[in-house]
Design goal:
Mean pLDDT: 90
Number of strands: 6
Strand order of the largest sheet: 4-3-5-2-1-6
Helix content: 40-55%
Radius of gyration: 19 Å
Largest sheet: 6 strands, mixed
Structural class: alpha/beta
């Protein structure tokens, strides 16, 4: 359950930023220069998919590094407690405070169809977390995760798994974005029975399979989700900025493999550009 909830948290990272000047046809990038004795690598994932098989280039890059960094340390034995302490809305609020009776009943029917959890048990959660319980309805296949595959590979190689941010930091995003906006996104998904979400995810899966960051960017920029279009700075840029000193320190200490949502890579405020601004050479691995 801890790892499943971790993936729900990670899945907020479907969201990203603006244009990269060089090739868009790679998800794996080498980080070198700026005093690094050995290169590190950063890989753009998609958090839910039908096939999370790792390419040989990923195995080779993992072989060259000494530890794995995900957005969250999914090996953390305290993750469950951190989730429980931070997953609810502030000030004792619940979904009923932001919906009419009719809207609440619509969401209840929706959750009965797409989730094993009844709405009554989770209606005090932050609205985007409620939305994520419907994630199984987005795919007509058993859900796989690149994060779990990478974590399994790290375990096989005897490597530690670390996180670029804590559960508290990731869940704070859902407090900084108004609950009213999150409820609007939830109601949109309910009213169209996940149609827009399914369409956008299918486009994202194709773009990720093609390793095309430009297409991923285009999909995100045209997303129907308000929490993406109106709060990109909070959900993306601020997090990217927070990660750069952590990536830099980790890479200087030991060669490391970083895996984050693919959309965090491109853009003037994306991880690739920010690392370059800090003096690193970041080049695509094909």
């Amino acid at each position: 359950m801890k790892k499943i909830l971790g993936l729900l948290l990670l899945s907020l990272s479907f969201t990203f930023c603006s244009e990269v000047k060089d090739s868009q046809s790679s998800l794996l990038w080498e980080i070198s220069g700026n005093g690094l004795e050995e290169p590190s690598y950063i890989y753009g994932t998609i958090h839910i998919t039908c096939d999370a098989s790792l390419k040989e280039s990923i195995h080779q890059a993992m072989d060259k590094t000494e530890r794995l960094f995900l957005e969250l340390d999914m090996d953390d034995p305290n993750m469950g407690a951190s989730l429980s302490a931070n997953i609810k809305m502030k000030n004792g609020k619940s979904l009923k405070d932001y919906t009419t009776h009719r809207e609440y009943e619509m969401i209840k029917t929706f959750m009965d169809e797409y989730s094993d959890e009844s709405l009554a048990k989770i209606d005090s959660l932050k609205p985007m977390m409620i939305s994520m319980y419907a994630i199984p309805g987005l795919l007509d296949c058993p859900i796989e995760s690149f994060e779990l595959e990478l974590m399994n590979l790290a375990h096989e190689q005897g490597k530690e798994v670390w996180g670029l941010e804590t559960v508290e930091e990731q869940l704070k995003v859902f407090d900084d974005i108004p609950y009213e906006i999150q409820v609007k996104d939830l109601l949109r998904s309910v009213r169209d029975d996940l149609e827009q979400d399914k369409e956008e995810l299918q486009k994202m899966l194709v773009a990720h399979k093609n390793e095309n960051l430009k297409d991923i960017l285009d999909i995100i920029q045209n997303s129907s989700a308000l929490y993406i279009s109106e709060y990109r700075e909070i959900i993306l840029e601020d997090r990217n900025l927070n990660w750069i000193p952590k990536i830099s320190e980790a890479a200087k200490t030991k060669p490391s493999f970083f895996a984050v949502g693919a959309g965090h890579l491109p853009g003037d405020m994306g991880v690739i550009a920010l690392l370059r601004k800090h003096g690193y050479t970041v080049k695509a691995v094909y």
